[in-house]
Amino acid sequence: MTELVLTPNIGTADDFYADLLEAHEGLSKAESDALNARLILVLANQLGDPQMLRAAIAAAKLPRG
Amino acid sequence: MTAIFERELYPYKRHADQDAAAPVRRKVVIVGAGPVGLAAAIDLGRQGVEVVVLDDNDKVSFGSRAICFAKRPLEILDRLGCGQEMVDKGVIWNKGKVFFGDRKVYEFDLLPETGHRRPAFINLQQYYFEDFLVARARELEAGGAPLGLRGKNRVAEVVDKGDHVALTVETPEGPYQLEADWLIACDGAGSPIRSMMGLDFVGRVFEDNFLIADVVMEADFPTERWFWFDPPFNKGQSALLHKQPDGVWRIDLQLGWDIDKDEEKKPEKVIPRLKAMLGEDVKFELEWVSIYTFQCRRMEKFRHGHVIFAGDSAHQVSPFGARGANSGVQDTDNLGWKLRAVIEGIAPEALLDSYDVERVHGADENILNSSRSTDFITPKSDMSRIFRDAVLDLSEHYEFARPLVNSGRLSVPCVYDGSPLNSADALHGPARTRPGAPCPDAPLEGGYLLDRLGDRFVLLAIDAEVPEDGFEEAGVTVEVLRLSAADDVTGELRRRYLGDEACAVYLVRPDQHVAARRAGWNERFMRSALRRALALGGDEA
Ligand SMILES: Cc1cc2nc3c(=O)[nH]c(=O)nc-3n(C[C@H](O)[C@H](O)[C@H](O)COP(=O)(O)OP(=O)(O)OC[C@H]3O[C@@H](n4cnc5c(N)ncnc54)[C@H](O)[C@@H]3O)c2cc1C
């Protein structure tokens, strides 16, 4: 089983970030929330592996301390 | 249709026990002639165990209740002798549609696995189920089985006497006393016996109401399960449409929490709702309407000395996933052979503690599944609604999101992993037939595997050498069912029981769960496995 990648892995970080913001442009808060939820589900399906998914949820909660 | 509700199936008749000078002692008394009590009675009665069923009522249960029965309970009913009636009368379905808002988001086909005698599910009104069970009990009684059914016998008092139970029973002709070596409480979710014994029943109440209606209509809706999330005719709520026999359709409409139940039940309120759902010109008649609030809860323990709880009295789930009656029947399947072994002195009372372990495990699985469905259908927070809607929106376009849609996961039997009756797995075989698992059916030359397994301890030997006459241990004769590749007409036996192994020997319990399995015959191993399965403390070979 591979580990969840928590080091830089997106080749074109600035482009991705810009795409993300652009996708939300002009959306209401509710529409943005819905888009985010759909995006999470699409990405989760891509990840697939239950252990990785659990690790990703844990990582998103931020380490304590 | 309503006639079936009114027929007295087991009318009150005075019994000699009512005139006895001293309370008569019966081996097993079952309180409640609902589906679970009746199934338990049939199972014990046909095995020759004396059993008396007492019920407050004398008719089938009134109104809209269970409609969906899964494969495993049907297989159990085959063993009890009324599976065929169920399947003949029931509606078999595999397809469904899911709607979100005003659009259909997808269709599905459950594509049930082939190679099973019984279908994955049938839809059938609970009153038919109870009617078949009563008929079967009557048939056994007429054939001399020690089984008695007493209508209008309400249990008013239960006193635990340690090694037996004393009961006070109310009848139309006054009360009488009765004693039971064992009492099985199948007296439903509101179990008076549970209250009399001061026992707990904790869990989660879902703050929601559902209007359940059975309507008779001439309509060409297909035999499919239709589920709506947030439909225009029931804004912000859910709805379900499902077919039953005799042109009866089950409709569930979620109503929310703050409603006036009596008001919502009135035909002048219900009919417009249904018209909005079915279309203005569909002709229908209301057979039954009721409003339910659902709960998920269970007793901490199902066995309390000589009083054993089964069915809704022990555990209750929301109906999404059709688990109530289905799991209750599985309780009786688990209990029947154990109680008989204890009564016959073959096994110690400790065997009954495994009923507790195994069926609590089953109840927890059902409660978990049913709670998850309810959480999807009725999101409890803004974020949970956002995710729910995201899943539904995605499901319209992408297949990947469809398994996340949860409008009820249909009941499958649980595997008794970790049960004290299991022996360590000694076969690199398929996971689905590991110790604790219910045996999956498989087609054989001229029949099906489960019918051949029956309801005794049996050694299932597939391409393996075992002693022809089986073996005897602790007073139990273990017979042999020897099968080979030649019997395996479809290859399913191999796929389900051997996997990559060349041969295997399975020790199967009377409830058709696997107790032990091994790549080949080993006498010490199997003797020990049998003792363990009877709570006699098998020692490791
Ligand atoms: C709307 C709805 C839909 C459902 N759908 C499904 C489904 O699709 N599939 C499924 O498997 N389950 C379903 N269920 C659940 C199912 O109906 C129950 O799980 C099932 O009826 C439980 O059977 P039981 O024998 O344990 O209890 P009950 O059917 O409640 O029977 C209890 C019996 O005990 C008797 N009794 C009570 N007190 C006493 C007393 N003091 N003395 C003597 N007798 C007494 C009563 O008269 C009654 O006959 C549904 C339930 C509802 C409400």
Architecture blueprint of SSEs:
The complex is a heterodimer of chains A (65) and B (541).
Chain A: H1 13-24, H2 29-47, H3 50-60
Chain B: H1 3-6, E1 24-31, H2 35-46, E2 51-54, E3 68-70, H3 71-80, H4 83-89, E4 91-92, E5 95-100, E6 103-109, E7 121-123, H5 126-142, E8 147-150, E9 154-160, E10 165-170, E11 176-185, H6 192-196, E12 202-205, E13 209-217, E14 224-229, E15 238-244, E16 248-256, H7 261-265, H8 267-278, E17 284-292, E18 295-298, E19 303-304, E20 307-309, E21 315-316, H9 324-343, H10 350-377, H11 382-397, E22 443-444, E23 447-448, H12 449-453, E24 458-462, E25 471-473, E26 476-483, H13 492-497, E27 504-508, E28 514-518, H14 523-533
Parallel strand pairs in B: 1-2, 1-11, 2-8, 5-14, 11-20, 24-26
Antiparallel strand pairs in B: 3-7, 4-7, 5-6, 9-10, 10-11, 12-18, 13-16, 13-17, 14-15, 15-16, 18-21, 19-20, 22-23, 24-27, 25-26, 27-28
Helix pairs in contact in B: 2-5, 2-9, 3-4, 9-10
Bound molecules: flavin-adenine dinucleotide.
The site of flavin-adenine dinucleotide has 36 residues of chain B, from helix 2, strand 9 and helix 9.
Key descriptive features of the protein:
heterodimer; A: 65 residues; 65% helix; globular; B: 541 residues; alpha+beta; Glutaredoxin; binds flavin-adenine dinucleotide
